[in-house]
Specification:
The structure is a homotetramer. By secondary structure, the first copy, chain A, is of the alpha/beta class. Chain A is built from twelve helices and eight strands. Chain A is 47% helix and 11% strand. Chain A is globular, with a radius of gyration of 19 Å. At the A-D interface, helix 7, helix 10 and helix 12 of A face helix 7, helix 10 and helix 12 of D.
Chain lengths: 314, 314, 314, 314
C-alpha cells in the first residue's frame, strides 16, 4: 500500500541529489545506489526533484524518469515526496498527478515571487490544493531562494484554509523564532503540521529543541542527520548536539548557496555512491583548490569522529 | 529556404500570444488565425514562446505544438523567432534545436538572476552560443522581469564575444539613453546588431528616432506598430508619432505588467481573432469593471482614429 | 490654524521636486518659486521629501531646511505632507515630529523590504503609529520602488488596525483592480480612506473612474492634473480624459524610473520655475539627444493643445 | 600621527556594535568599554558605523557622536575604519570628510542596487573616489545585504581604475572561489589589495587558507578571531581551525541575518561590556526561549574550551 504523508511525519526525509553522468545524462544506476545508500543510513523518507535535485534543469521526461527509478528502487519501503513547483498550475498539477500515480506520498511546493504577498500565497495554494484534491502538500518555506517570505501568522492562516498542507519544510533564515511561533499557535488550537527543517541542517539541534519533527535536507552524511534526530527524540539532546557539532564544519561548507551542491555531490562521489559529481550547466564545479579544501575538511571530520565524546554515528 | 535572423533585421516582429480554450488547452485553431491576422497586418516576423506567450506555463509538448502550428501556418512566409529561455542550458538547447529543425530563424534568450553579474551574463551566453553553434540569438534585455540588467558597455562586450548575437530585444526601462549609447559605440566600431524594441511599444517613436530598427512587442493592434515603423522609415517621423499617440492610451493600458496580457488577449478576442481570452493560472482575468474600462478605451480609440490628422492605419 | 490631513482629502497633492543649484546645494529661491507655481496652478496640497524629492540624498539639515522654506512659502494656504520614510523608527519619528511642529498636515511613510511580509508591514506601521500618536499617515504603496507589495485585503487590515492612516498614495502597478477592491471593501464596511494616485499619473482617468479622490504625483504640468481631476469631479470624465490624453506622451516620458526626474526638473526649468535641473549624484542627466527629444515632445504638446477638443488647461 | 589604511593591512578589524541604552539613546559609556574590550582582546583595527553597527538607524548627529567617542577612546592606538555608505554622494562624502578629519584611517563603502550593474558600480566608485580624493576606501562586497554582486573580473577592473581602494571586505556567499580568483589575478599583475573577510567569520579558516589577510567582522568573541588569524599567520592552520571549530556553533548562531545582531549584543552584555542588548526598532529582540538557547550554546562553548586540543584563546 502506498505511503501517504501525514501531519505527524517525523524523522529525516533526505533531499536526494540527482546524479548525472559526466556527459550530463541522468545517471539512473547512481540514482539507484543513492536510494539504497539513503535507506541503509536509516532515513525515514526521501524527497526528490527539489531545488538541490536540480529539478528546474531537468526535462519533463527526465523528471518522470527520476520518479520512476526512485519509486522502483524504494519499492514501497519509504515514503517519497516529489517537488513539483512550477510557474503554472497546469504543469505543477500534471507532475503531481504523475508522482501520485507512481506512489508518491505527497508533493512539495514552494511559493514564488509572482504570488507577491502572503495574501497571494494563500490564494495560490488554495487554487493548487483544489486542483490536487487531497494530495498531501509540503510547503517549502525557503525565502533565500524563493524571495517569498511568509510570517507565522500567515502560515497559520494557510494551514487552516488548506487542510491538505501536511508539512512545513522550514528553511527561513533566520527561522528559529518562526518555528517556536508556529508551535505556540498550535498549542492555542491551530492545526498541527509536521515541521521538518532544511537549510542544510545548519541549525538542526536548535530546531529540534524548538519543536521540529526532524529534518528534510540533503547533507551528504545522512547518518549524522538520522542519529542527531534519533538521539534528540530519545531524550539525549546533548548527545545529539555533540555529534552535530562534529559535522558542523562540513554542514556549513555544504550549505553555501549554489556552490554547496557541487560539494555535496563530490562527497557522495568520494563515498562511492554516485559515479560523477557533475552539476548541470550553468552550475558550479570544484577546482583543485576546492578539492583540497574538501579533502582537508573530510580528514578533520574523520579525526574528530575518532576522538572524545561524539562517538561516530552508525 | 528557411529564414535566418541577421543583424540587419528591421520592421515589426510581433510577440505572439498563445491562445487557450476556456478549458485551458492550447487552442491551435485560434493560433492559426492569429498567425494569419499578424501576416495580414503586415508584420515582418513573429516571435513565439516569449514571456507574453506564457511560455513558462506550457509543457514541453505544448511548446513543441505551438512551434509546429506556427511554422505550418507561416509556411515560410515570415521569419519566426522562438523564445527558449530556461534555467538550464540542456533544456534551452534542446528546445532551440527543435525550433531550428522546424525552420525557426533564430532563438531568443533572456538572462536570469542566477547569472548574477554582467560578467556572469557574458560567460553564460558564451556557453549557450557554444552549444547552439551558429544559431542566431536575440538577447532579451528586460530587467523589469528578469532582474538582470546589463550596461551598454557590457552589452558591447557581449556582442563582440558572441558573434551569433544578431539582435537586441530592447526593453530596459529607462532605456532610451542605452539605445543611443549602443548606436554610438557601433559608430566607433562595435559590431552592429539589430535593435527591436519591446516594453509594449511605450516609447516606440523615441526609440526609432534613437536608432531602433523596429519593434518586437505584442500590442493587440499590430497595424499601428507596422504603420508607425513604416512612416518613420519612410522619413515621416511626425506622421508616425501622430498615429502612435492616438493609440498611446491603449498601449499604456496593455503595458501593465501581468494584467496587460489579459487586456491584450481580450482585445484579440473582441477583434475576432482568438476564441477565448483565457490566461493560464495563476494569471489575471478581467472583471466587469475592467471590461467596461477597456470598452471605453477602445471606443475612444475609434473616435480618435476617425478624427484629424492621424489617419487610421491600414 | 494648521491643516490636518483627513481621510476625505481630495484633489491634487503635487509631489514637489527639490531644486538644487548647479553646484548641488538646495536652491531655496527656486523652491519658493516652485511652491508659488504649484499654488497658482491650483493644487490642493503639496507633498515634499518624497522619493522624487530626492529625500534620501538630503542631509537631515537640508531636509529641515526644505520643510522650513516650504512651510513659510505656503503660509498656511495649503496642506503640506512630508515624506519621512527611514530605515529606523527613531529617525522617522524625529523627522515627523519636526514636520508636524512646523505645521505639516501629515506624513507619508513607505514600507520597506525589511518588513518582509504583509504581517511585517502591519506590525511596523502599528509601531510607527504608536510613536507618532495621532499624526495623520499616508501609506505610500509603490512596490516598483520599495519591493514591498500589499494586497487589498492586507491594506484593509492595516486601515482597520491603524486609525491614523488617512490616505493611500496608490501607485502599485498594475493597480487598477486594487483600487476597485479597496473601494468595494469600503462599501462593505471597511473604514474609508482617501486615495490619491501616483505613478506619474499614468492611469489617472482610469483611477478616477474607479474611485480615486485625486492624484499625488509630480508631473511638471500640474495644471493638467488639476484640470483633469476638476473635470472628472464635475461630471465630465470624457473631457477629463481628452485633456489627459493630450499630455499622455509627456506623462509617459516623465514616468521613466530614475531618468524621469531629470526630465521633470528640466521641464520646470524651461518653464522658468527653477534655476537648474540638477539632480543629486548619482543621478541622471539629460544629454543633447535627450534635450532635443524633450523639445520635440513639448512642441507636440503645444500643437495638440492648440487643436480640437482638448482645450488647453488653465 | 593618524593611521592610514593601506593595501597591506592584516589582522582583525572588528566590526563594532553600537550600544544603546534601554531607552534607545546611543550609550557612549558602553561604547568606550567596548572599544577598550576590543583593544584588550588584541584586534588590529576597529570598523564603526557598518550595517551591524545599525548605521542606517542613527541620525547624523549620533553618527558623529559615535565617531567622536570611538576616536577619543582609541586615542590613536588603532586604525579606525568608518562606514559611510549612503544613497547619495553628497551625504557619503560629508560623513567621510568628518571621519577623516577626526582621524579615521579610511572609509568603507558598499555598492547599492541603484548602481544596477558592474559597470554602474565602477562608475559610481570612480565618482566617489574623485570626491574623496585620496581617502583610503574599503569595498564592502556583501550581496546578501546589498543585492549588488560583483565578479572577480569586475572587482579587478575596479581596483585598477580606483587606486584609493585599499581593501576588500569580502563577504560574498559563496565567496571562496572569488577570493582565490582575486589572488590569482594579483599573481598575474593586478594591484594587490588587503582582503579581510566578513560573514560573521563563518568560513574564516578556509578564507585564510585561500589568501585572506584576516577578518573584518563583529563576532562577540573577538579573541577567537584574533587567535585564529594569529595561529594561521604563525604557520599553524590546523591549530587555528581547531580553535575556530570550537566556536563555530556560536559563529553560526550569531550569523543569522538580522536576528544575529541581537545575539551578538546579548553576548556582549553578558560578558559585561555593554549595559543593554537593545537593538533599534524595527529590530529583533531575544525572547525567553532565545535566551535559554544562547545560554546553552555559551555553556557548551565553555565546556569545549575546557577540553582537548583547542586550548582556550587568550
Amino acid at each position: 500500500m502506498a505511503h501517504r504523508l501525514t501531519s505527524d511525519a517525523r524523522g529525516v526525509y533526505i533531499i536526494s541529489a540527482t546524479p548525472f553522468t559526466d556527459e550530463g545524462a541522468v545517471d539512473h544506476e547512481s540514482l539507484k545506489r543513492l536510494v539504497a545508500f539513503y535507506g541503509e543510513k536509516g532515513v525515514t523518507g526521501i524527497t526528490i526533484l527539489g531545488m538541490m535535485g536540480e529539478a528546474p534543469k531537468l526535462s519533463l521526461t527526465e523528471s518522470h524518469g527520476v520518479i520512476d527509478t526512485v519509486m522502483a528502487a524504494v519499492a514501497g519501503a519509504l515514503p517519497v515526496v516529489v517537488g513539483v513547483s512550477s510557474a503554472g498550475i497546469d504543469n505543477l498539477s500534471a507532475l503531481a498527478d504523475y508522482a501520485m500515480e507512481k506512489g508518491a506520498a505527497g508533493v512539495m511546493v514552494a511559493p514564488n515571487a509572482a504570488m507577491k504577498t502572503e495574501t497571494g500565497i494563500l490564494a495560490t495554494f488554495e487554487a493548487i490544493a483544489a486542483r490536487l484534491a487531497g494530495v498531501p502538500l509540503v510547503y517549502q518555506d525557503f525565502p533565500l531562494s524563493t524571495a517569498m517570505p511568509i510570517s507565522p501568522a500567515a502560515f497559520g492562516a494557510l494551514v487552516n484554509a488548506v487542510p491538505s498542507v501536511a508539512m512545513l519544510k522550514h528553511e527561513d533564515w533566520p527561522g528559529l523564532s518562526k518555528l517556536t511561533a508556529i508551535r505556540a499557535a498550535e498549542a492555542k488550537g491551530q492545526r498541527r503540521v509536521s515541521i521538518l527543517t532544511g537549510n542544510g541542517g545548519l541549525y538542526l539541534p536548535q530546531e529540534l529543541a524548538r519543536g521540529a519533527d526532524g529534518a528534510m535536507t540533503g547533507f551528504a552524511f545522512p547518518e549524522m542527520l538520522v542519529e542527531v534526530v534519533r538521539r534528540h527524540q530519545a531524550g539525549d539532546p546533548g548527545g545529539a548536539e555533540d555529534l552535530f557539532d562534529a559535522y558542523l564544519p562540513l554542514v556549513r561548507h555544504e550549505q553555501q548557496p549554489g556552490f554547496g551542491l557541487a560539494v555535496r555531490k563530490e562527497i557522495l562521489r568520494r563515498r562511492g555512491i554516485i559515479a560523477s559529481a557533475a552539476v548541470r550547466a550553468p552550475g558550479p564545479k570544484l577546482d583543485g583548490v576546492a578539492h583540497d579544501e574538501l579533502t582537508r575538511l573530510m580528514a578533520r571530520l574523520e579525526r574528530r569522529l575518532g576522538e572524545g565524546p561524539t562517538a561516530k554515528a552508525a
